[in-house]
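Holo model, iron/sulfur cluster. Inputs:
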Amino acid sequence: MTNIDDILNKEHLDYEDIVMLLSIEDKNDMQKVFDKALSVKANAIGRFVYLRGLIELSNICRKNCLYCGIRRDNYKAIRYTLFHDEVMESVRLTEKFGFGSIVIQSGELLGDTFIETLESYIKEIHQKYPELLITLSCGEQTPEVYKRWFDAGAHRYLLRIESSDEELYYSIHPKDENHSFKARMQALTDLRNTGYQVGTGVMIGLPNQTIEHLAKDLIFFRDFDVDMIGMGPFIEHSETPLYEKRNLLWSLEKRFNVSLLMIAILRIMMPTINIAASTALESLDNQGRRKAILAGANVVMPNVTPLYKKKNYKLYENKPGIHLNPWESLKSIHDSIENCGEHICYHNPGIPKHFRDRTNSI
Ligand code: SF4
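Output:
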């Protein structure tokens, strides 16, 4: 039988290798995978961490994903949309803190008002802070909208597929015209064709999800040739339909450990992409993001949304840091990453080497 060391010495991990690595439960063997991933990262892109200022623009969403705390039918969610001045103040703080890029995230909203408003924000930010790279995470839109926002100055887009398995996807989304697996896949291709640096990701530890599903997710990322990944443990929210299936969930410890393994294995498979240390990891372990960085992640997204609004952007429960103002969010991240051999790169957008190589850009 192949042992862990043999697998970690391979040039190319196949499906069976990935399943075996994801199945590791022994702490020492897990550490071998994390160490290998850290060494791959160090050799390929250096031990650098890039910060993105996260602005949660609006928690209004037209969709009804069965796991999400701000889904359309959660009438208990207190809805908000940031005003223009709140957005610009968040951007100003991002630039002042030297983060290098911002992420504007919102529920999925269609319609001219949202599209035009966001387009005007992107133009204003791009004009005032040309060195700040703008990332969007605003759900599925048409190719024309992706192009408008790209032309306005946004050059990165995050759109998580949540699972690359169609059946599992439909077990966590309603089966209706608003939630289409094929449309989600097409959206990733549209984003790629528009010229964005494209990011996606999955949740780890969903009801009925298996290690085999997750191994196929990793292979999907490689086959699609993604530039960026954000993935983290599934954490249930009591005001969602999926909460009824909480008896099917893995333990929190297993969800955390498999999430770290997913990050580490992906780093080994795709050495030059950007991998985020998700906030959800910190919900399960107060050193979660630091551990993810030491398992191969290289991006962290401190929240710069105004304190009085961000407590209402709750995709899952026990979201960490909702009582921290932007400065405290940064300090908490800085303190947790410092002194572990990593260097935080301020004033650097952290464009993935993978994207530069893929597009032959500088
Ligand atoms: S996961 Fe995203 S698209 Fe789905 S309901 Fe939540 S905010 Fe909306």
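The chain has one domain: 29-359. The domain at 29-359 is CATH 3.20.20.70 (TIM Barrel).
Archived with the compound record.
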